[in-house]
């Protein structure tokens, strides 16, 4: 007999996430009787997800109750779990910033002012939880997981677990080289979007030689003929294999597209060389609009299902659990249905060479005792120096900019970009980005009492 829980979903109008979460809860018998509160500031999308969730549960005969609200407090009040998947600025504003950086300053698919708005929301949610549900777990499912989870665990007493699905890249490797992913044992520790395949065992034997054999005998043919099935289909790209040869371990998931390694990202032809046709990976002027169009099409489809009284969601959505970890982790913590998961939690010695208060992505055992990270062997020195430590530095820079309002920290980020031509251009770009109407809230930094004049970045001389 399981125990019911109260779950608040922040940003519930997500085109990618909420319906899958409902499906997993409906199909988890030990969570029957649970209550789900959808929260989103977009009333239209909130209504769609609420209708679909209630209809799916009803058609499946699941014992769940639902409510919907545009007010965060009811979603958090006395919750056992809070899932935050919200994206504040959205894809349209993101595209506006990239277009400005490209058309006026010569950056290719780049430009931005950091994650101020996302970090602000994350911290607000965590602080509200301290007041409304202090014993709840916050499952952070929206980016930036690395920066945001580190910030929230440092600034609040809330229990935070960040999740990402990039680690499933190990399955793509297995499938591509012709082995059964179900028979693979693996580990890929690091920090979010920067994880490395340290263990890849197939039927009790090291399977890295199988990767090497595939590269030697089939790699060139694959790169010549493979057409990506989706914008993020880059796990076995030439770029991923090149990173494996550069760093000594295979990069997993979003690690493959890491912007730190600028030589893969200079222009569309370079991106296609490393990440293949037809988009050159997910971060291009070809891929991003397509990705957003797919999300919009999914929302339109959800709307049709929501208003169609004849729609059979058990057929349209399916009755198999998703690959996501949120619900199994809730079940493990609540009902002791234990399992091993890939999580983002404060290090506390799990990954050698990283401070305890920095959030790392590592395997963990989850049961009623909590989320217990496994201690993993040290990553190779080359990966620590060239990959993990630079990401840690960038994260600390981002958090310092957020906490102090020091714009010069954002200027450093732009100056570090290998597409930056000179100081004046970097300064001018940041000025324009900050004054875009959709991001003008950042101007509030200047009114914060803790910010002094010295925190403003210096004008060109």
Give the structure's gist in a few sentences.
The chain has 461 residues and is of the alpha/beta class.
Task: Compute the number of strand runs.
Answer: 15
Helix content: 40-55%
What's the end-to-end separation, in Å? Answer: 70 Å
Secondary structural class: alpha/beta
What is the tally of helical segments?
Answer: 16
Q: Kindly state the mean pLDDT as a whole number?
A: 92
Please state how the strands of the largest beta sheet are arranged side by side: 3-2-1-4-5-6
User: Whole-number radius of gyration?
Assistant: 22 Å
Proportion of strand residues: 5-15%
List low-pLDDT spans.
442-454
Major sheet size, sense and barrel closure: 6 strands, parallel
The 3D shape can be described as globular
Q: What does this 3D model show about the protein?
A:
Helix content is 44%, strand content 15%. The strands form four sheets. It has a six-stranded parallel beta sheet, with helices on both faces. Strands 7-10-11 form a three-stranded antiparallel beta sheet, covered by helices on one side. Strands 8-9-12 form a three-stranded antiparallel beta sheet. A hairpin with a 2-residue loop joins β14 (359-367) and β15 (370-373). It has helices at 18-26, 43-60, 72-76, 90-105, 116-132, 145-155, 169-177, 208-225, 238-247, 268-275, 287-307, 313-316, 326-335, 381-404, 407-416, 423-434; strands spanning 6-10, 35-39, 65-69, 81-84, 137-140, 159-162, 184-187, 190-191, 194-197, 199-202, 205-206, 250-252, 339-346, 359-367, 370-373. The termini are far apart. With 461 residues, it is α/β, with parallel strands linked by helices. It contains 16 helices and 15 strands. Residues 442-454 have low confidence and may be disordered. It has a domain at 166-284. The radius of gyration is 22 Å and the shape is globular.
């Amino acid at each position: 007999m399981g125990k019911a829980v109260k779950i608040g979903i922040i940003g519930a109008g997500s085109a990618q996430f909420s319906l899958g979460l409902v499906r997993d809860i409906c199909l988890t018998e030990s969570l029957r009787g649970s209550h789900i509160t959808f929260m989103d500031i977009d009333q239209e999308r909130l209504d769609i997800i609420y209708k679909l969730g209630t209809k799916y549960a009803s058609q499946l005969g699941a014992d769940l109750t639902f409510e919907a609200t545009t007010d965060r407090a009811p979603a958090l009040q006395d919750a056992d779990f809070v899932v935050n998947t919200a994206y504040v600025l959205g894809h349209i504003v993101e595209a506006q910033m990239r277009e400005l950086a490209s058309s006026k300053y010569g950056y290719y698919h780049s430009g931005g002012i950091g994650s101020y708005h996302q970090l602000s929301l994350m911290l607000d949610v965590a602080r509200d939880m301290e007041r409304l549900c202090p014993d709840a777990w916050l499952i952070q499912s929206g980016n930036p997981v690395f920066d945001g989870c580190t910030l929230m665990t440092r600034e609040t007493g809330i229990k935070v677990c960040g999740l990402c699905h990039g680690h499933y890249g190990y399955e793509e490797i297995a499938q591509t080289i012709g082995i059964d992913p179900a028979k693979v044992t693996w580990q890929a520790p690091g920090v979010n979007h920067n994880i490395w395949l340290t263990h890849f065992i197939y039927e009790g034997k090291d399977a890295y030689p199988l990767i090497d054999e595939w590269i030697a005998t089939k790699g060139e043919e694959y790169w010549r003929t493979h057409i990506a099935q989706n914008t993020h289909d880059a796990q076995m790209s030439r770029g991923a294999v090149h990173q494996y040869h550069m760093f000594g371990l295979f990069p997993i998931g979003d690690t493959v597209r890491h912007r730190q390694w600028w030589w893969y990202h200079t222009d569309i032809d370079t991106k296609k060389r490393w990440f293949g046709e037809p988009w050159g990976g997910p971060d291009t002027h070809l891929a991003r609009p397509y990705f957003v169009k797919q999300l919009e099409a999914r929302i339109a489809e959800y709307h049709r299902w929501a208003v169609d009284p004849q729609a059979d969601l058990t057929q349209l959505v399916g009755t198999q659990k998703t690959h996501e970890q949120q619900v199994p982790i809730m079940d493990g913590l609540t009902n002791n249905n234990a399992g091993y998961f890939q999580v983002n939690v404060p290090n506390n010695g799990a990954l050698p060479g990283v401070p305890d208060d920095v959030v790392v992505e590592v395997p963990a055992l989850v049961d009623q005792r909590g989320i217990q990270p496994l201690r993993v062997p040290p990553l190779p020195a080359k990966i620590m120096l060239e990959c993990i430590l630079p990401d840690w530095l960038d994260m600390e820079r981002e958090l310092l900019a957020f906490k102090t309002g020091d714009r010069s920290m954002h200027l450093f980020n732009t100056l570090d970009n290998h597409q930056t031509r000179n100081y004046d251009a970097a300064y001018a770009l940041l000025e324009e980005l900050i004054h875009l109407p959709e991001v003008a809230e950042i101007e509030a930094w200047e009114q914060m009492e803790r910010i002094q004049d010295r925190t403003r970045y210096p004008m060109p001389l």
